[in-house]
Amino acid sequence: MDDQVFVLFGGSGDLAKRKIIPALYNLYLGGKMPSRFAVLGLSRKPLPRAAYQEFIVNSLKEFSRHKIHSADEVEKFASHVYYLPFDASQPEQYSTLNETVRSIEQENDLPQNRIFYLSMAPDLFDEVALNLKAGGLTDTSGWRRLIIEKPFGHDLASATLLNERISSAFAEHEVYRIDHYLGKEMVQNIEVLRFANSIFEPLWNSHYIANVQITSSELVGVEDRASYYEHAGALRDMVQNHMLQMLMMVAMEPPSRLNTEAIRDEKVKVLRSLRKFTQEDMTKYVVRGQYIPGKMDGQHVLGYLNEPGIDAHSNTETFVAAKLFVDNFRWAGVPFYIRTGKRLDAKTTKIVIEFKGTPERLYFNQDGQLKTNLLTIQVNPSEGISMRLNAKSPEKDGVVLPISIDFSQETKDLPEAYERLIFDAMRDDPTFFTRWDEVSLAWKWIEPVLEAFAEDQPLFPYIAGSAGPKEASELLRADGFKWW
Ligand code: BG6
Question: DSSP letters of 356-401?
Answer without folding.
Answer: PPPPTTSGGGTTS-PPPPEEEEEEESS-EEEEEEEEE-SSSTT-EE
